[in-house]
Amino acid sequence: MNSSVRLPVQGMRCGKCVARLTDILQQQPGVEQVDVDLAAACARLQYDPRQTDPERLAAVVVEAGFRVEEAPSEESRSAEPDRETGLPVGSATESIQLPLYGMSCSNCARSIEKGVSRIAGVISAEVNFALESLSVEWHPAEVDVATIRAVIRELGFRAGQPATMTRPGELSFAVSGMHCASCARTIEDKLSTLPGLRRVRVNLADDSASVGFDPRQLSEEEILDAVRQAGYTPIVDDSAERQAGEDRRQLQWLLFSAALSLPIMPLMWVPLFGTGTLYLIALLSSLVQFSAGLTFYRGAWHSLRNRSSNMDVLVALGISAAYGYSLLSLFGLLGADSPVFFETSAMLITFIRFGKWLESRAKGKAGRALRELLDLQPQQARLLVKEREKEIPAALVEVGDLLVVKAGEKIPVDGVVVEGESAVDESLLTGESVPVAKGSGDVVTGGTISRNGRLLVEAKRVGTETALAQIVALVSAAQADKAPIQRLADRVSNVFVPTVVGLSVLTFLGWYFVFDAGFLFAFQTSVAVLVIACPCALGLATPTAIMVGSAVGLKAGILFKKASVLENISRLEVILLDKTGTLTSGDFAVAEVRAAAESDENELLRIAASLESASNHPLAAAVVRRAEEAGLSLSAVTEVMEHGGHGLVGRIEGRLVAAGNAQLMRQQEVEVETWSALGEEWSSAGRSLIYVARDGRLLGLMGLADSLKSDSVAAVSALRRLGLKTVLLTGDRREVAETVAEQVGVDAVEAEVRPDQKLDVVRRYQQQGAQVGMVGDGINDAPALAAADVGIAVGGGTDVAKETGDLVLVRGAVRDVERAIRLGRKTLNKIRQNLFWAFFYNLVGIPLAAGVFYPFFGWLLRPEFAGLAMAFSSVSVVSNSLLLKRYARRMENDS
User: Fold this and answer.
1) What is the DSSP string of 637-652?
2) Of residues 768, 760, 734, the one with CA closest to residue 749
3) Burial of 715 (0-12, 13-18, 19+ CB in 10 A)
4) What CA–CA distance (Å, rounded) separates 74 from 102?
């Protein structure tokens, strides 16, 4: 008699989830009937209790990627964030706007409204047919965004993600209104006071902020409101058009202030309108002061209100002093012969505007690489539905969709080729200009270009999960991060403005009272001190170099996950190089097979491959591949136990089988001494050995060969020329390791090291006082990569976000390790140069403006030229960072 059971299932989002789970459950032995209900979030099954039971069926559901549990109660859900929006779930309602696709008339809009309105927990649903969007309000305790989108898809339409949606607890946005490092610090200090804030990084170089927070305690709007309260404008949709518009606005203000300021100078010398000329000059200066100069007053007010000080405070003080003094003189309040210098304040504003415009253009060039990468993301996809092709936005593609890619088109998302052949240009990821042949079963990456032929691709990763999106996220995070060397500039900027104001006051008092130089001279020098001092150069010194350095690395397939990596990698002294997959190709092949007298080669291969099929190690895969090529049928294996770094033990056909190195054989009490001579001979030839035993008796020995990567020898040689100690790290026998070490030319060998012991090797070198870099495949070497001062993962370029380590080599070329170190050293040198010039400029410029050199050499700066010098100091720092781009060409030539 059959039994029935109801399993509560959480995690299903759409009809495809239902179909997939139904198919999996129907294939289970003993299952007679399956009914998976998306709305009720459960699976009802009838089964034969002699063949299966509810526990086994529940385990199958979990293995399929779902959860067997009842829906959370009202109370428990109120403490959890919605799985898509990251917003706190509770009794309060939420509302959101979703972009729609697929509507052809107003009837379609009504169908969506009716369908969504019928969902339990939805309060209202309104479709704007003209804007192709859905505004929906719901109770998050009863329904979530994923369910709403799934229902819309079942109705035959598509709903995209909200425009501002990011990962829960993560928010990145642009910030308008920052002028110097003090502005960035003000925003960081303001946000740091918010409850639930985990981290905040404000990057002056690209005018952006990145925030990590607890969505149960803090909302995105509260974060944006805090930025506004600090006196700045947060911009969530930071498009290239907005940035171009900002550049145009800066240029317009520059032209406006210049048009009004430039006539002042000749009018000062040639009074074309007699006594009225002075009033015309005052009018022109006033227009500049309270239009183009208003931004400095606004910035100073917000800064002082937040109990901090920035560049705006210095500029506002300088232009106010010059303009105010001139205005009082104009009306005779300072005496009949008091001079006026309206041109000082007007030209000062114009020159600073000019410098800011140049700085904005230079900063735009520094961040151009990331914007170009964003432009590579495909905007459209051709969806195949019932043999018909429909163009939809790429953002609406979902996992499992079949997409048509024609010759010359970009592949919309990551996927697998189902049908067709083409040469695909993967230079986006690998930097290689030669297209790669792709056919049925091959993996393709979103953003790459199909050069010829037609491909039918099944979508596997979409949205933020694609390789291109992951790369963009990594580069953005690295550029938003702060390098340790920036701490010096931050400490100086904390006291910079108050110190400059104090020096300005001392300058006036010194010249006027001590040296009796006259009021006008003392006044002008004190104003010059205010406006020549530049905290901007200090704030831009590090982040601009980081931006350009990470962009150069990006184009070369070198992804820095954090800004600190660019600094730390330049200090490495020891490089540990994993052998398999790093120096060697990792594509092993069975080169030698020797069976014992009581066995034969086919039996040896069959037993070994059956056991090795339970492992994903490259050696195991090679054995299985050789058996398949020989047409051997593999047997089922049970009770498999992996002995880390040594091999496998399991049962085949009821008999105990072991496959691995000599140490494993000794542990299993298998006699291998009589084979030692053969083993040493093969090892000396660079073979990796696998002994195979059954029931305590040796069946034979296999030797596997691995080939060196084409660039391994050159890479090790280049690393040694950089002064680094190179160490080969491997779990292979010492004879094999030393053979490979001799071929590539490393300085030392660490052999027969299990995966868990690699961590100990890293720590041993660190305890000797060395800065250690670890190069590995990012999976088996994860602990060592994490413990090293710099972990370098040799990735395949398809899932870079999951690679362990601080640095990912997308192309998988070991030569890129040396290029990354050189790039790190170049970037650190640029940062040091920038900091030197920023400090040197202020150390020389402030005394020059204060008139220190005037008694000796007659050197003196008028305030307006002091302002121009201040503006150009920031431009020079950014321009110096841009010189790193020249190194990109050298890296291309090296490759």
Assistant:
1) EEEEEEETTTEEEEEE
2) 734
3) buried
4) 35
- Any idea which residue has 């969806």 for tokens? 383
Nearest in space to 582 (alpha carbons), one of 761, 706, 749, 435: 706
Residue 656: per-residue pLDDT? 93
d(CA 460, CA 57): 26
The pLDDT assigned to 708 comes to 83
Whether the model clears a pTM of 0.85, i.e. scores above it, the answer is: no
Q: Choose among 293, 301, 311, 300: nearest CA to 353.
A: 293
Q: Which of 260, 235, 778, 265 is nearest to 559 (CA)?
A: 778
CA–CA dist 417, 810 (Å, integer): 21
The C-alpha atoms of residue 579 and residue 265 are separated, in whole angstroms, by: 72
Q: Which of 335, 321, 342, 349 is nearest to 522 (CA)?
A: 321
Which ranges of 556-688 would DSSP assign to H, the alpha helix?
563-568, 601-612, 618-629, 662-667, 676-684
| Structural tokens at position 338 | 């008091």
Q: Are 16 and 402 in contact (CB under 8 A)?
A: no
Give the pLDDT of residue 758: 85
Q: Is 409 helix (H, G, I), strand (E, B) or coil?
A: coil
Q: Which helix (H) or strand (E) holds 589?
A: strand 589-595
Distance (Å, whole) CA 224 – CA 233: 8
Per-residue model confidence (pLDDT) at position 83: 43
Structure tokens at 884: 């790193």
- Determine the pLDDT at residue 481: 65
Q: What is the mean pLDDT of the chain?
A: 82
Q: Which residues are catalytic?
A: 578
Residue 777, helix vs strand vs coil: coil
Question: What is the DSSP-derived secondary structure letter of residue 778?
Answer: S
Rg (CA), the chain: 34
Instruction: Give strand pairing partners of 647.
Output: 643, 660
Non-local CB neighbours of 767 within 8 Å, separated by 6+ positions: none
Say which residues have a Cβ less than 8 Å from residue 545's Cβ, sequence separation at least 6.
Answer: 827, 830, 831, 834, 881, 884
Angle at 146 between CA 143 and CA 148, to 5 degrees: 65
Tokens encoding 302: 């917000």
| Complete DSSP assignment for 862-889 | -HHHHHHHHHHHHHHHHHHHHTTHHHHH
Label residue 552 exposed, middle or buried (CB < 10 Å: 0-12, 13-18, 19+). buried
Element (H, E) at 404: strand 402-405
Tokens for 118, please give them: 């019928």
The angle at the Cα of 187, spanning 185 to 190, to the nearest 5 degrees, equals: 110
| Under-70 pLDDT residues of the chain | 1, 13-17, 19, 39, 70-93, 161-168, 237-244, 334-338, 359, 362-375, 428-434, 476-483, 490, 493-494, 644-645, 755-756, 778-780, 795-804, 892-895
Pairing of strands 380-385, 388-393: antiparallel
Q: Which residues is 94 bridged to in the sheet?
A: 138
Which residue(s) pair with 437 in the sheet? 423
Closest CA to 146 of 83, 79, 81, 61: 83
Backbone phi, then psi, for 475, in 5-degree steps? -65, -40
